[in-house]
Every structure is written in structure tokens, then in C-alpha cells.
């Protein structure tokens, strides 16, 4: 089944580029930028990656991002991620970045985005992997800071596909970000939000009704509310589910009880994604392999998940059709 998964054309729709910073690159960049890390070795960094909830992880994730200073750093980070994605049979990615994590340290917005765009252009040229960029607002900061970030992004609106909402979920509901999401929508941007990873089903409802999102990131806790499940299914709302992330952040106890198979059976448009692969123990392929093995997913499930990753993407209808046709051709070849 792993060989079948590797060859299956796949897209990744939930990936924080700062979460793809491997400890090796963290040390390289710290050396290049003359920054002293609070860790003695790559092994010591990895040993610190034991989390019992989202906040545990976020504390170390924001600390790691401090080695990123220059445009080259952001480009190298993106290039490293795309190499891993391509090796797993990923052909398209819609990547999140957290500008406030960097601008609050004095790094200009342009340095961050120009570096990432350079890495994305390299991936398309060299690996044939396409990508889109989604700017995430940090929800533990005030909405005014999100509005200032959207303003800083004005010169780049043609190169941004959408905006998202990430960071600490509990206590920071979507209702606090209606103005900035409305402004982003008026500028033609797509909208996504993390909801229902740790937060209650009502946060998912708020993301739909108040922010008017096009996708829900995670969405696990929708399953606690039958009416919400029916609505998400009826609206074909894409859920960007992250199995290894859920395991590492204790959203689930065991991959064998991960709800993604149940989501598919309920008619929900679920996808498999890696979230922060350097921190959670696996890139896109590893998420697919471990989830398929733990839940005994069959070919029908896998094909559905691959198709969902494109129909749930922000690619053009023609590009989506092309990817779906490639999936069908691949499946026909690999009977
Ligand atoms: N949830 C919320 N914020 C995040 C995450 C996540 O899984 N990863 C990076 N920022
Ligand atoms: Zn995430």
C-alpha cells in the first residue's frame, strides 16, 4: 500500500512553513546568523519535542523560528520543505506562514515573503511542484495587529492566495477576527481558519458563519455535533486534517482511534496533511502511510483522500481537473 500511496498524486493543504524547520537547518541557520541556541545539539532539540498540548508545541515552535533572519533563510526553509514533499509524491502545496512571528522581531515583511516566494518559484522550476501562499494571523495577538499585518501585505496581494488563523485556539475564538477576515475577503483573498483542533464545535460554527471560511483547518471536534457534521457534509466543506500532529499534541491518544476514516464515512471532505512536520515526526508521506496502516484504509479511501486534496485546493477548476485525471490514470495503471 505504501508504494501505491507514494505514486498517488497528492496535494498538501495544511502546512506551516516555519513548522518544517528541521533541527539540522536550525543549527545551520543559527551558525550562519551568529545566534546561540538554547540547545547543545540536534539530538537535544529533538528530545525537547515532547508535547502534551498545542501550547507546549507553540512555545518551542516560536523559539525555533528565531533563527530565520534573511531572505535566503526563508528561501532555504521553503526549498527544504519542497524537496521532502516531492520525495513523497506531493505535487502541490498551499503553505501557511506566520508573518507576525517575524515582524515582531524586527524582520521586514518583505524579507519573509520574498524569501518564501523565491523558494516556491524554485520548487516549480526544479521539482515541478506548484504552490500557493496563505498568510496566517496569530490569534493570541489582538485583531488590530492582524489588521496591520494585512496592511503590510497590500503590495503582495497578487502573490497571496488567502489568509488563515492559527496559534493558541482556546480562549481566542474566530469571533475576534471578523473585521480582518471581512477586509481580506473584500480584497479577493480565500479564507481558512484553524478550528476544532482543541476548541469546541462552536468555534467551527463561528469560522463558517462569522469569518465565512472556504476551508476548516483540523475540524476534529466537529464530530461532537451531529448537526454540524451534516452541515459540513452538505456544504462539501474541506477539513484539512493532520493525523501525526493530532497524535503528538494529544488531540488523539492513538492513530488507531483517529477520526479521519469516520469523517470519510460520514461524507466529510477530509484531507491528510502534515501541519508542522519537523516537530510532529513526519512529512506528508509519513502521515499517509501511518494513517493508512493504523486505520486499515483501502484503495477507495486513499483515492478519495487524494481527490479531496485537489478538489479542496485553491487551484483553478482546469488545474483541478488535470490532477483528478492524473489520479484516475495512475489508479488505472496500478491495478
Ligand atoms: N495549530 C495552531 N497553530 C499552529 C499550529 C497548529 O497545529 N501549527 C502552527 N501553528
Ligand atoms: Zn496547523
Determine the fraction of residues in helical runs and give it as a percent range: 40-55%
Shape descriptor reads globular
Query: How do the SSEs run, as a string of H and E?
Result: HEHHHHEHHEHEHEHEHEHHEHHHH
Poorly predicted regions: none
Give a list of the ligands: hypoxanthine, zinc ion
| Spatial ordering of strands, largest sheet | 1-2-3-4-5-6-7-8
Q: How do the helices and strands line up, and which of them pair or pack?
A:
Blueprint: H1 2-7, E1 10-16, H2 23-32, H3 42-47, H4 54-64, H5 71-87, E2 90-97, H6 99-103, H7 109-127, E3 130-138, H8 143-152, E4 162-166, H9 178-186, E5 190-195, H10 201-211, E6 215-218, H11 226-234, E7 238-241, H12 243-248, H13 260-265, E8 269-272, H14 277-280, H15 284-295, H16 299-311, H17 317-333
Parallel strand pairs: 1-2, 2-3, 3-4, 4-5, 5-6, 6-7, 7-8
Textual characterization of the structure:
Helix 5 (71-87) packs parallel to helix 7 (109-127), helix 8 runs parallel beside helix 9 (178-186) and helix 16 runs antiparallel to helix 17 (317-333). The radius of gyration is 19 Å and the shape is globular. It has a single domain (2-333), classed as TIM Barrel (Alpha-Beta Barrel), CATH 3.20.20.140. It is built from 17 helices and eight strands. Strands 1-2-3-4-5-6-7-8 form an eight-stranded parallel beta sheet. The termini are close together. 51% of the residues lie in helices and 14% in strands. By secondary structure, it is of the alpha/beta class. Bound molecules: hypoxanthine and zinc ion. Zinc ion is lined by residues 14, 16, 166, 194, 217, 275.
